[in-house]
Amino acid sequence: MIKMEKVTKVFKGDVVALRDVNIDIGKGEFVFLVGPSGSGKSTFIRLLNREDIPENGRIFVAGRNIGGLSDWRVPFLRRNIGYVFQDYKLLQKKTVAENVAFALEVIGKGPQVINRQVPAILELVGLARKMNRFPHELSGGEQQRVSIARAFVNRPLILLADEPTGNLDPNTSVGIMRLLERINEIGTTVVMATHDRSIVDSMRQRVVELDRGMVVRDQARGVYQ
Amino acid sequence: MFSLRYVLRETGQNLWRNILLAVATVVTVGVSLSMFGGFMLFQVAVDGATARWQDGVEFIIWMNSDDGSAEDVSVRNQLSESPGVQRWEYVDRQQSYEEFREFFEDTPEVLEIISAEGVPPYFRVVPVDPDPDVVEELGSQFKGKPGVRTVTFAGDVIRDVQNLSNRTGRALFIGSIVLLGASTLLILNTLAVAISNRRTEIEIMRLVGATKWFIRVPFMLEGLVQGMLGAAVAITTNALLRNYVIDQFSTADGLQLLAGFKVDDSELLQVNLLVLAIAAGVAVLGSILAVSMHLNE
Question: Cα–Cα distance between B259 and B236 in angstroms, integer?
C-alpha cells in the first residue's frame, strides 16, 4: 500500500528531516511511527499526503509514484488518505454532523451520499446521539472521535494520524486507539506517529522508529523501547 | 464537481462574516465607478452640446442657398483657395435639419414651428491659426457675401465649456482611476481577511481532497459580488445624474447652448455597460491577486 525508496527530505538550511528511508507498508497494516521530537515522524506523514515532496527517492501510494503526480491530481490522491490531527482542527461554528459532512461536501458529494454516510460514521465512532452538538460542547476525546469520523467518512484506503492522543488523558486515549483499531480491522492501513509509550506497548503492532531522519528500527509486533 | 448550493452558501457566509469590510469595499468601488460614470456622462453631454464645434471648428458659415448654386460654388472656391483655412466641411440642408431635430428633441414646440426648409445648410471651417483675432478676420471675409446668411464663431462660451469639460473630465478620470486602483486593493484585502479567517477550514479542505478551484471559487465569487454591488451603486448614481442633473441643463430656459447638453437612453446604457465591465475587471483582478497571493499551495 505504501512504499518508500531511498527517500530523503532536506529543509532550508540543510536540515535533513529524512535520510535514505526505505519502507514497505502492506494493505491493512497498523504501523506506529516513534522517535524523539525532530526525528522526522511528521515529515514522514506529510510526504505520504503529498504536502511535501522529497529531494531524493520515490514514494508509492497504492502503486502510484506520488512524487511525479501533477498538482491537479493531488486532491484525488488525498481522497484516499484520511488525516487525523493532534489538535482535532474542528470547525467551531459547525455541529458534529456538519463537521463530518464538510469533508464530503468539499469533494463534491451530493446530499444523498452525505445523508447516508454521516450518520453511519457517527454511529461507528459512538457519537450518533451528539451529532447536533457543537465542538465546544464535547470532551477532548469526543472531539478527536469527530476528527476521526471526518477523516474516515470517505472510506479512505489509508489513515494517517499525527499524535492523535497527544492532547488526551490515558483513559480517553485507550478509547481512541480502540476506534483506530476498529477502523484498521475494516481493512484500512493506519500509520500513526506517537510519543505515547503505553499505547504502543499495549497494542503490539508494527513499530518503525526514526532517529535524526533515519529508520533505526522496524519491528513487527514491537514496543516503544 | 462543484456544488452550486455550497458555493453560494460559502460566498454568502464570507460576505456576512466581514460585513463591514465588504460594505467599505462596495462603497469604494461604487464611488470610484460613479466618478468614472459621471465623467463619461458629462463627456457625452458636452460632446452633444458642442457637436458642431468639435475637432477645431472655429466658425460656421450659414448659407441661404443650396448645394450647387452659384453662391455656394463661390463660397466653396474661396474656402478652398484661402491659405488661412486648414479644412472645411459642408453640411447640407437635410443633414442640418437632422442635427437640428436631435438638438431640440426635448423641445417639441420648437420642432413644430420650424420645418426642414427653415434650417439652412452650412460650412464648418477649421482655420490654420486658432487665434481669436485671426479667426474673426477670416470669418468676416464671408459675411455679406451673396448666399451667406450669417457667420457664427465658436466664441469664448463654447471654448470655455469645452475647456472646463476637458479639465473636469481629466480630474474625474484621474480620480476614478486612482479610486479604482484602491478598490482593487480593497477587494484584495477583504478577500485576504476572509481567507485568513478560514485558515483551518481551508487546511481541512486541502487535506480531504478539495480541488484548488473548489477552494478558490467562493472567494473569487465574493470579490465579484462586491464589484457588482459597487457597479449597482454606480449605475444608480448614473441614472440619478442623468435624470436630475444633466437633463435639467438641457431644459433650462434661455440657455440655447445647453439645449444639446443631454444623454439619451442608449448613451446611458453604453456608459452603464462600460461601468459594469470595469467593475467586473476590478473584481476579477482583485480576486485573482488575492487567491494567488494567499491561497497558493
Answer: 24
